[in-house]
Amino acid sequence: MYAAIDPGRPVRWGFIGAGGIADKLANDIGLTEGNVVVAVSARDAGRAADFAKRHGIERSYGSYKELVADDGVDVVYIATTHPGHKSQSLMAIEAGKSLLIEKPVCLNAADAREVFRAAVSAGVFAMEAMWMRCNPLVLRAEQLIAEGAIGEVQGVRFEFGLGIPFDPTHRLFELANGGGALLDLGIYPASFAFHFLGLPDEVRTVGTLSPTGSDDIVAMQWIYADVPRADLWCSATVHAPNKSAIRGTKGWLEFQPMAWRPTGLIVHNADGEYLIPDPLDGHGFGYTAQVLEVERCLREGLTESPLVPTADTIAILEILDGARAAVGVVYPGEKGSR
Ligand SMILES: NC(=O)c1ccc[n+]([C@@H]2O[C@H](COP(=O)([O-])OP(=O)(O)OC[C@H]3O[C@@H](n4cnc5c(N)ncnc54)[C@H](OP(=O)(O)O)[C@@H]3O)[C@@H](O)[C@H]2O)c1
């Protein structure tokens, strides 16, 4: 079991992977008072050193193994592409490190269960980097619903299209690198719907594949025995306004300007329409709330975040496993792969 981190010192982060999202999180960690990135690792020592220089990080390593062995690291951030998450998480857990793992935690629910089971056995903290569940506006929406601001919730919608031209070497299309719209983008609509509506009774999925066989466009309807329903959509290649909303019997809530990284929450009800601005707007890339949640959990000695519970992460991956099967995507090494 790890020891809760004393409030007198910062939480020390070590990064596995020095790519796109690692750059953004390093920036946002630097915007918080209680956190510092002390080490970074990449497959290439030179790239790790460049990353360290860019962000003022003390130590850099050319292997992930050296990073997890660093005694000065409290929490490891797994910032590589999805297929690496499982083995890298297990390696960090074995070294006694707490973890923030990029979404999706693993390619499928079975692997995610294995990772979280290992974390529980080792008594370390582990959380999926589902920043949306820590976002202040999402938490405010939850509070407004509990206060009855839109009456009974009747459903949600959430779309996320990136509009990236097809490129077989881009990670979103490369099956060997976990490519596909559902795991990269669709996981946000799924997490949103799960948060506000819970586990669906039935999921209907339709989708199309890219020329590499990765899922490109996927639409899901989550059906419930009572009225609520979720209309969810994602695509790697299609451009979309990327809106999200929660429907209710007395009004509705809409995240602005788009579902991904909202900076405002619009409330429509019998009182009219009003905008709640994001208290973190203009504060980095929108990940500080997630960093502060990890810090809070580590200072309290928790092994999981109440905002991003392990059970939810696994349940959402189970739904995505089903949706992926419906559109016919199997990753190399998974059961059913050729
Ligand atoms: N939370 C968010 O908002 C958000 C946003 C974007 C992405 N993500 C997630 O973050 C993860 C990384 O995304 P990214 O956009 O940062 O990706 P990226 O820049 O393309 O790659 C990140 C790192 O993954 C490793 N990597 C890339 N391709 C690889 C390959 N073919 N084989 C082995 N390792 C490879 C590399 O690690 P080295 O540096 O060690 O070489 C690379 O620096 C994904 O799981 C993605 O879903 C989250």
Task: Record keyword descriptors for this entry.
Dihydrodipicolinate Reductase, domain 2; 6-stranded parallel beta sheet; binds NADP nicotinamide-adenine-dinucleotide phosphate; 338 residues; globular; Rossmann fold; alpha/beta
Please mark out the parts with pLDDT under 50 across 5 or more consecutive residues, or reply none. Answer: none
Fold-level CATH name of the largest domain? Dihydrodipicolinate Reductase, domain 2
Taking all residues together, what is the mean pLDDT? 96
> Going across the major beta sheet, what is the strand order?
8-9-10-7-11-12-13-14
Overall helicity: 25-40%
Assign the CATH architecture of the largest domain: 2-Layer Sandwich
Given helix and strand content, the structural type is: alpha/beta
Biggest β-sheet description: 8 strands, mixed
CATH homologous superfamily annotation of the largest domain: Dihydrodipicolinate Reductase, domain 2
What topology emerges from the helices and strands here?
Blueprint: E1 11-16, H1 20-29, E2 35-41, H2 45-55, E3 59-61, H3 64-68, E4 75-78, H4 85-94, E5 98-101, H5 109-122, E6 126-128, H6 136-146, E7 153-161, H7 181-197, E8 202-209, E9 215-223, E10 229-235, E11 244-248, E12 251-256, E13 264-269, E14 272-277, H8 288-300, H9 310-327
Parallel strand pairs: 1-2, 1-4, 2-3, 4-5, 5-6, 7-10
Antiparallel strand pairs: 7-11, 8-9, 9-10, 11-12, 12-13, 13-14
Helix pairs in contact: 4-5, 5-9, 7-9
Bound molecules: NADP nicotinamide-adenine-dinucleotide phosphate (NAP).
Describe the structure.
- The protein is globular.
- An eight-stranded mixed beta sheet has the order 8-9-10-7-11-12-13-14, with helices on one face.
- The chain has two domains: 11-132, NAD(P)-binding Rossmann-like Domain (Rossmann fold); 136-279 and 316-327, Dihydrodipicolinate Reductase, domain 2 (2-Layer Sandwich), CATH 3.30.360.10.
- Helix 4 (85-94) packs parallel to helix 5 (109-122), helix 5 (109-122) packs antiparallel against helix 9 and helix 7 (181-197) crosses helix 9.
- Helices cover 32% and strands 25% of the residues.
- It is an alpha/beta fold and 338 residues long.
- The chain has nine helices and 14 strands.
- Strand 8 and strand 9 (215-223) form a beta hairpin.
- Bound molecules: NADP nicotinamide-adenine-dinucleotide phosphate.
- NADP nicotinamide-adenine-dinucleotide phosphate is lined by residues 17-21, 42-44, 47, 79-82, 84, 102-103, 129, 131, 171, 177, 184.
